[in-house]
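Task 17 of the worksheet. Students: predict the tertiary structure of the chain below and write it out as structure tokens. Keep your answer in the requested format; marks are given for formatting as well as content.
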Amino acid sequence: MTRWLKIARAELVRDFTISLRYPLELLTGLFILYVLFMGLFMGAKLLAGQQALSGNLDGVVIGYTMWFFALMAMNTMSIDIENEARQGTLEQVYLNAPNYLGLLWVRAAVHLTMGAGVVVALAVLIQLTTGHWLALTWAAVPAMLLTIILTIAGLCGFGLILGGLSLTFKRIGQLSALVQFSMFFLAYAELSSIALPWRDIVAHLPLARGVDMLKSLLTPAEAYPALGTDLAWLAIDSLFYAALGSLVFYAMERVARKGGLLSHY
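Model answer:
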């Protein structure tokens, strides 16, 4: 346990140092995401009109910020492995880390905790621009935090599948981009408007149920009687994706070890 705490501290120092040494990278990424949202917002405003859009702004803001969280979660589990392989440090990490899969989970927890500050900054900037503020209540905050954590855990498991592929195939940038844009559509999926049985299928996919729950939590508590049931299903889905991702990563890791694919790019 002490060793893993030391690893978590080392990853925290590493992320903090990189952020300080390369601030332009962080600010540029935040600016690009902000510009993308403004393009989405202005396009929707032009097509739907101000009055039609005003009733859906909560969903637009929540969906976009959660999509950004999804990008961070999957990049931590996949793109970072590809970067380490390119830099030539992947084999060194394997030689020193007690368990690389465990290291990825610790790294994801640290990276997403630090990234939460960027997500909050992005959400505040978006709300300042649109002039629409989310109607958050202190009573809903615990349930919202639990929903976000469970949703991100499932996304990390999904990212592990991409991470396992990057160990063996090295370059999966196009596949990662395809998956990330697929998550964008899941972030804006209106479950209530999807006919059965497709609604149940989409609800079990990563991100969809979590975003739908966050939008429902902005309503008064008495208007969301199914919160306990939805939290239970979200936990089951996230556990499934986390376990599936870990198993796939472990299997692909064994293939990479046997093929000697960790020592070169």
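Marker's comment: The chain has a mean pLDDT of 83. The chain has one domain: 22-258.
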